[in-house]
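#structure-requests
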Amino acid sequence: MPATDGTIAFFGATGGSTLACLALALKAGYRCSALSRSSSKLQSLLQEHNVSQSAIDTHLTIVLGDVRDAQCVSQTLTPPLKPDTSSINPTVRLIISGIGRPPIFTPNPLNPTFDDPTICQDAMRTILDALRSLPSSSPKPVLVALSTTGISSRARDVPILMMPLYHWLLAVPHKGKMEMEASLLAEVAKPVRERAIENFVIVRPSLLTDGTRLGSEKVRVGEEIGDAANPAVGYTISRADVGGWIFDELLDGKGRDKYGGKMVSITY
């Protein structure tokens, strides 16, 4: 029996880490909704992750559209019930957002470009605005946002040898991640009645790879909240293990209480 009472909404569902989490959630029987610009692409990727078509048809509602479109985001947050699922609570109680764009490497590998440098903060703004438009009686969800190491102002959370990569080559997307994090911190600083969310968990993985899943027991975890920071410093982690850790700790486990309101660094 899934541990989350209600629907889990996924944004950035075709991205490696978010996709890995969504695949595990569907195989475990969670009721999910996902915003995607291509239903066929998302379903094909899920099948590559060994999710059966039956599980997709039964447990997943795909909303076609863009994350900057407020109506599409609202539909993802208020998905209709599917036939024969009347016993499942359609209310979204958990949001997983892994919005981002990979760098585009030019002939000069030291000068990558980014086709959508503001996507992270724009997406989070749209999600929060859509949540505020829901009826005031709607339960407020916990929002899990995928960010990155290398942007903490409290403590160094990347190895010294990787600092040039993070602070030079990745400066543009990191600015977007910082603004995304700031919007979540500002949201939970509001009076409880005015918040769009119950709480957040910001997940900061180290440099992402396409490696296989090693298991959450291989993942080291650090925490940052307020001025207190004890990050996990490491070089890499696979997208499969990021999605797996989110599933194990924040969907199936009790990590939403343990890590609520924190920036959580994860690495090998």
